[in-house]
Amino acid sequence: MSHPQTLAVRINLLDWRAEQREYKRKRFIAQLVGAAVATVIVVGILPVIYYDHLIDAQQARNHYLQQQIATADKQLAEIRELKKTREDLINRMQVIGELQRSRSAIVHYFDQLTATIPDGVYLTGLDEKGTTTTLDGVAESNARVSEYMTNLDNSPWFTNPRLIVIKRDDSHGKRRADFTLKVDSTSPDQTQNGTSGDAAGKGRAS
Question: Which domain holds residue 23?
Answer without folding.
Answer: 1-35
